[in-house]
Design goal:
Largest sheet: 8 strands, antiparallel
Mean pLDDT: 93
Bound molecules: 2-deoxy-2-amino glucitol-6-phosphate
Structural class: alpha/beta
Radius of gyration: 26 Å
Helix content: 25-40%
Distance between the termini: 12 Å
């Protein structure tokens, strides 16, 4: 996923573009660049690596930054390495047209061959560059930027959001949306284009969400929207309901720590909304519960952290709804034999709503007749297009690449969905439903306790920070918790942490155990696998592994057995994944921070993987 910004107005164009890119850094940070329309020419500045390198590059070019319009891009590399040559913006051969792109042009190879045969010279390895030469070719035919772009996009297949400027047409940006979000921000005497609201939050009050197959001509005082055939399209404006606070760390050293500490309030709001009027749960307003409850089987499809939330829901739904639930990684679902049918409820979970694997998988399930229920944190995202029912996470923009608040919001929404489905199917008694709802309501207070008493987590991080590997083990409903804890540590600290079913330890992974391989055990006293978990930990102890545990307060056995023990207040086991995730998030954060890692922008990662 990349980030795009565009600006036309009397402001300080260069610095407006740079600050917009700064707020989009969570989308990728392999390279960055801007193109400025300076009267009779287009000036391009681009640099590989972090955005700071671009700031450095333009620091002595203030005269060129005072342009009349411009476009900018921050990249997560897909086609072509993270080099300056491959950085956007890309320029046409005659130097008159510049563009930035988010998405994937699937037929770029054949187009590149065609354009090279026509004499166009390529300077980069990217798919994007074909669009620069294609639009130049069409501009020579049609003479205006709108006509050139609307003609050119017809040759393209795949997903693309573009901003395009041309030397002959000052103070004009042509923006294009096809399968990748793009918005237009409406100002006074100035207008903006952006991939996402954080780039323009605080700068505009109203925005236009472009739809697929639409393009916009954006000038200082006017915005016109067309379809790809050049027919004018009426557009509706929406007020920006996001405060600049969203992209501020609010005094925290990293967005990740800020977002970890937002969790209790987010869960509280979700639950408060849920019980406000005692009637239909507001977060479920867009869920066709009657329809969804008729399903004879459930499939839950997701990637990464969202897949771990899906796995928790798998346990919960089977217990509450008494129907088979399969949890599948989206990238696997796409290529396996498909038993999805019209009796299936397919739940797609994606924080960003732009994960290509999950979107492709959901599309496939829809083609097989399933009722599609989508959980996403971005209601304007691409995945929503395929939803029959929608469950918004309402967690607020998650800036840090590591998912934390979206994970606990997903779990909360899945619990609420499960209870609603159980009520509809009468698979739980009214007493059982009432008890579960009461337990759920108490979670935010317990979350707050965990997050406010986290000093011991930081102390544990000090003791663990020099290990290069860790094994996380659990059983049952908390196996996904162990997987999620390992993923958190892996992705931000680069420690080789892996989650395993505790019962699987003796079937191979135990060979890895020694004094250099700490074992993190996630367990809850009083359930049917607790004693087995204790045995697994004793097996690890016998192989000289440092034993770290996450359990409930007052777990006396664990207190005796573990070298390091993190605890949470006791809760009904089915809700324990939500609480137990918190110390694991904090542990990963503190270890990464102690190691001096780029916590919010871990290497090689992006906030959403928009390529399969
Ligand atoms: C989680 O911390 C990672 N950022 C990653 O695994 C993420 O959960 C995954 O890419 C899925 O993203 P999505 O929820 O936006 O689809």
């Amino acid at each position: 996923m990349c980030g795009i910004v565009g600006y036309v107005g009397v402001g300080d164009v260069g610095n407006i573009l740079l600050s917009g890119l700064k707020n989009l850094e969570y989308r990728g940070y392999d390279s960055a660049g801007i193109a400025l329309h300076n009267n009779d020419r287009i000036d391009i500045f681009k640099a590989a690596g972090k955005l700071e390198n671009l700031y450095e590059l333009v620091s002595d070019q203030q005269d060129k930054l005072a342009a009349t319009s411009g476009i900018g891009h921050i990249r997560w590399a897909t086609h072509g390495k993270a080099t300056t040559k491959n950085a956007h913006p890309h320029l046409s051969n005659n130097g008159q047209l510049a563009l930035v792109h988010n998405g994937i042009i699937e037929n770029y190879k054949s187009l590149r061959e065609e354009l090279e045969r026509e004499g166009y010279v390529f300077l980069s390895e990217t798919d994007t560059e074909v669009a620069a030469h294609l639009f130049e070719r069409e501009y020579k035919k049609w003479g205006t930027l709108e006509a050139a772009v609307s003609s050119g996009v017809k040759y393209l297949k795949g997903a693309f959001a573009f901003c395009v400027i041309h030397q002959n047409e000052p103070e004009k940006i042509v923006a294009v949306r096809q399968n990748v979000p793009l918005i237009v921000g409406l100002g006074e005497g100035e207008n903006f284009v952006a991939s996402d609201i954080p780039a323009i939050v605080g700068k505009v009050r109203k925005i236009v969400y472009l739809n697929d197959g639409e393009m916009a001509t954006v000038s200082r005082n006017a915005v016109s929207v067309y379809d790809f055939n050049g027919r004018k399209v009426d557009y509706r404006t929406e007020y920006v309901d996001m405060s600049p606070d969203v992209i501020s760390k609010r005094g925290y050293p990293h967005f990740m720590l800020k977002e970890i500490h937002e969790q209790q309030d987010i869960v509280r709001h979700l639950l408060q909304d849920a019980y406000a009027d005692g009637q239909k749960i507001p977060v479920l307003q867009k869920v066709h519960i009657e329809e969804a409850a008729k399903a004879e089987k459930i499939e839950i499809i997701a990637c990464g952290t969202s897949l771990h939330a899906a796995a928790v829901a798998g346990f919960v739904f089977e217990e509450w709804l008494k129907i088979p639930v399969s949890v599948i990684a989206a990238s696997e679902y796409i290529y396996r034999c498909c038993l999805t049918d019209e009796k299936t409820l397919t739940i797609g979970i994606s924080q960003s709503g732009e994960t290509a694997d999950t979107i492709t998988a959901v599309k496939r399930a829809k083609e097989h007749g399933a009722h599609i229920l989508v959980l996403t944190n971005r209601e304007d995202s691409s995945i929503v297009r395929y939803a029959d029912s929608r469950l918004p996470l309402k967690a607020g923009i998650e800036v840090s690449v590591a998912a934390t608040k979206s994970y606990t919001a997903q779990l909360t929404c899945l619990y609420l969905l499960g209870l609603a489905l159980a009520a509809e199917r009468r698979s739980l008694s009214l007493d059982e439903l009432g008890q579960l709802h009461d337990e759920l309501r108490q979670l935010p207070t317990k979350m707050e306790k965990v997050l406010n008493e986290a000093e011991n987590v930081k102390a544990a991080a000090e003791k663990l920070k020099n290990y290069h590997q860790m094994i996380y083990i659990a059983r049952g409903i908390n196996l996904p918790t162990a997987m999620e804890g390992a993923l958190k540590l892996k992705e931000i600290s680069y420690v080789n942490a892996n989650g395993y079913a505790a019962g699987e330890l003796k079937h191979g992974p135990i060979a890895l155990l020694d004094e250099n391989m700490p074992v993190m055990a996630v367990l809850t006293p009083g359930n049917r696998v607790y004693d087995k978990m204790i045995s697994n930990c004793e097996e690890a102890r016998a192989r000289h592994s440092l034993l770290v545990g996450v359990s409930f307060d007052e777990d006396k056995t664990a207190e005796r057995l573990f070298d390091l023990l993190l605890t949470v207040p006791p809760v009904t086991e089915v809700f324990s994944p939500l609480l137990l995730a918190l110390p694991l998030q904090l542990l990963a954060y503190h270890i990464a921070d102690l190691l001096g890692r780029e916590v919010d922008r871990p290497r090689n990662l992006a906030k959403s993987v928009t390529v399969e």
